[in-house]
Amino acid sequence: MEAPQSEGDPVTDSTPEGRASSAAALRARLAELDRDLTARLVELGRDLRARDDDLAASLGRQTNDLTELRDIVAALTDQVASLQSGGRYTAAPNWLALAEDDAQYRVQRAALVKWVDGFLRPTYGCQEIQDCWRYHARAIWELGNIWAEWCRIYDRDRPELAGALAWHDRWLPGALRRLEPVMLGCLTTCAERRTRNVA
Ligand SMILES: [Zn+2]
What we know:
Elements: H1 16-84, H2 103-124, H3 137-154, H4 161-182, H5 191-195
Bound molecules: zinc ion.
Zinc ion is lined by residues 130, 132, 135-136, 183, 186, 190, 192-193.
């Protein structure tokens, strides 16, 4: 006994003509499904790409926000430490924490260059410091520290006398004494400058 065919079953006619007609209908239906599937896949791909772009943009924004927040927190931490220590605490510039092509490194170094070439050398002479000092890592560290100490003492309404005396008597002369041999031969030729291919 033949099983009853369910409603909608395309194979309803067992004659050769009926089977051919059903096969044609199936092929047409398959082609339709294939077109539909292709269209959905294209749409899905477009959707995923759009989400990917949105996600990348969102991640970029969040990374920038986090970097800004990190800088703000670091600055606030320094301020709190400075307040807690009655102005005795000042963060030293940390060049190791930054890559040389990092924007923050360039900003920090540009500020140091401005202070050294725009204030320190014109004011104090500092014959030990040659024009190529900014290409010497040792000079960047030494001058960065005395710059930070200068800011700690003088970036306030009432500079601290003991700090000012120590800076002039001890910290600046010490840094210059240590830097003299570092740039001794730089008047004629500077190995650091040549290594960096700077004119
Ligand atoms: Zn040099």
